[in-house]
Specification:
By secondary structure, the chain is an alpha+beta fold. The protein has 4 helices and 4 strands. It has a 4-stranded antiparallel β-sheet. The longest helix has 14 residues. The mean pLDDT is about 95. This is DUF1330 domain-containing protein.
Length: about 120
């Protein structure tokens, strides 16, 4: 099932190391089927507080993300980012094709009724 890596990045300014990281990251993702869905987009906050920006990556599955993140190629460039940005990063499975949230709501209602 398609999976996603989502990063909430809070840069401390732009510099050559971050630019080098951006220039090199796609080559580390290609062997694992990764691609950017959101990158370098301006964030519009409509609820709450969101300092910084967001990056969203898509991979074929969670194992592909884990393998990419632990890969020597990515670990080599990772310090180029971590030295200059605070970040919270999560990985998560997507929903299957044809997902309908009403089915989830019905299952939750059944669980509540059985409790």
């Amino acid at each position: 099932m398609t999976a996603y890596a989502i990063a909430h990045l809070r840069p401390n300014g732009m510099n050559e190391e971050i630019i080098d990281y951006i220039d090199r990251i796609q080559d580390t993702m290609d062997p694992y089927g990764g691609r950017f869905l959101v990158h370098m987009a301006e964030v519009e906050v409509i609820e709450g507080d969101w300092p910084g920006t967001v990056v969203m990556l898509e991979f074929p599955d969670l194992d592909a993300i884990r393998t990419w993140y632990a890969s020597p190629a990515y670990q080599e460039i990772l310090p180029l980012r971590t030295r200059h940005m605070d970040a919270d990063i999560i990985i998560v499975d997507g929903v299957p094709a044809g997902y309908d949230p009403r089915e989830s709501a019905a299952a939750l209602r059944r669980s509540l009724a059985e409790a």
